[in-house]
Amino acid sequence: MASLNVGNLGEYLREQRRTAQLSLRQLADAAGVSNPYLSQIERGLRKPSAEVLQQVAKALRISAETLYVRAGILDEKEREELETRAVILADPSINERQKQVLLQIYDSFRKENAAEAAEAAEAAAQATHTAEADRAAATDA
Question: Virtual CA dihedral for 89, 91, 92, 98, nearest 10 degrees?
């Protein structure tokens, strides 16, 4: 997990607030936080909790996960996985059993791909080690 990047988060929040055409006070009221506290977050002086970020995201009508990534609470891959799950669970055209089956398939594909990636990384590391050993042997000869 990355460390909090509150400066980047603050700039992003300010940009989103301005895009939504909200004043600092309006956003603070909508999010249920104080105006000075929100100002400090935007200026990168305060580290908001995940709960505060969720409230601000709701007020801005943006993804809380996006703010978590910006704050370093969540990495990009985790955000993508959560958003995929949320889309599946929110789909009104499939029933609950179908949603659960689809999530199980999604999980199995992710595990399979992670295992393949780990095997490929191990093979690459072994090849690098073998090449280095061959170079060392050639240098000694």
Answer: -60
pLDDT of 115 strictly over 70: yes
> Which tens digit of pLDDT belongs to each residue from 13-56?
999 999 999 999 999 999 999 999 999 999 999 989 999 999 99
Rounded distance between C-alpha atoms, residue 108 and residue 138, angstroms: 45
**What residues contact 81, with CB distance under 8 A and at least 6 apart?**
110
Q: Nearest 5°: phi and psi at 64?
A: -65, -35
CB contact at 8 A, 66 and 15: no
DSSP letter assigned to residue 48: -
- What is the Cα Rg of the chain in Å? 23
Neighbours of 98 (CB within 10 A): 12
